[in-house]
Write a structure and sequence with these properties.
Elements: H1 3-8, E1 12-16, H2 20-32, E2 36-40, H3 43-50, E3 57-61, H4 69-78, E4 85-89, H5 94-103, E5 107-110, H6 115-129
């Protein structure tokens, strides 16, 4: 079984996106690829839910009404959560990309995301957080 296919098995992705159509689209795409998905329209709801279950990856919108994506990631890190996060945004600028990566995002993707590119980003983010295989 290919590495990326194995990575999707039972892995949980949390989607934090205030736009309902985008959130539903991301949710559907991830579920059809075998991921467990929890999705939230508000950052504070995602924070509260994270305390109950540990995700393997976050997809976080940059601009949200209650806090922006960088603030949410900072809150998650302060609370001790280390799962990789991917920023999703309508427009990627060089400044935003630099700030997002410096803030600890694994990567940044533009909305609407290209389906295969997004799935590769999620698989790569999850793989980057997994311990290396034990030597034989």
């Amino acid at each position: 079984m290919a590495l990326k296919a194995r990575l999707t098995l039972r892995k949980k992705v949390v989607v934090v996106e205030d736009s309902e159509p985008v959130r539903k689209s991301l949710n559907l795409l991830l579920r059809t690829r075998g991921y467990q998905v929890a999705s939230y329209s508000h950052a504070k709801d995602a924070l509260a839910a994270t305390y109950k279950s540990l995700p393997d990856c976050y997809l976080i919108d940059f601009k949200m009404p209650d806090m922006d994506g960088m603030e949410l990631l900072a809150e998650l890190r302060r609370a001790g959560y280390s799962a990789p996060a991917i920023m999703v945004t309508g427009v990627i600028t060089a400044d935003l990309k630099t700030r997002a990566l410096a803030a600890g995002f694994h990567s940044i993707v533009e909305k609407p995301p290209r389906r295969l590119a997004l799935m590769d980003e999620v698989a790569d983010a999850i793989a980057s957080s997994m311990p290396p295989p034990a030597a034989a």
